[in-house]
Amino acid sequence: MKQLLIIIFITILLSACYRRNLPDSCVNIACTNEYRMITAAVVDSNLLPFVPQKIETILDGEIVNISTSPIQVLENSWLLYGDELKDKLGVNIDNTIIVKTYHNNTIVSIDTLTAKADCCHVQKINGKDTIKVNL
């Protein structure tokens, strides 16, 4: 009975890290439960915090995230994307992400960043940490 429980536990542990569309090298990787997210501050032309109507994050022509309010725990920090996007990014593949910032139904900023994922988490390769809007 003890061996059966150990086998079940190991099976659950290994299957918890399996994700569709990941290479075989990721199947046996033990991922943490840490949630990684890519954020940006938004400022106006005077570099003061600015609250846009929304921020759209676009990957391959598809809107993958819409932020309509800042993250509660981080002042003036807006979520662009998080670990939920890792399967769409693919492992160690550079992806171009477009970030559109809106105010009064008008695009006030378009920014580009490069992102990728490892077996467990997303990461930004390059791009701005602060979005400067033009009003």
Topology of this structure?
Blueprint: H1 2-16, E1 37-43, E2 54-59, E3 62-67, E4 78-82, H2 86-89, E5 95-103, E6 106-117, E7 122-126, E8 130-132
Parallel strand pairs: 1-8
Antiparallel strand pairs: 1-4, 2-3, 2-5, 5-6, 6-7
Structural account:
With 135 residues, the protein is mainly beta. It has one domain (33-132). Helix content is 14%, strand content 39%. It has a five-stranded antiparallel β-sheet with strand order 3-2-5-6-7. It is elongated, with a radius of gyration of 18 Å. The chain starts with a helix and ends with a strand.
Query: What's the number of extended β-strand segments?
Result: 8
Largest sheet composition? 5 strands, antiparallel
Radius of gyration over C-alpha positions, nearest whole angstrom: 18 Å
Strand order of the largest sheet: 3-2-5-6-7
Question: Assembly type of the shown chains?
Answer: single chain
What are the main properties of this structure?
single chain, 135 residues, 8 strands, elongated
Sum this structure up briefly.
The chain is mainly beta. It has two helices and eight strands. Helices cover 14% and strands 39% of the residues.
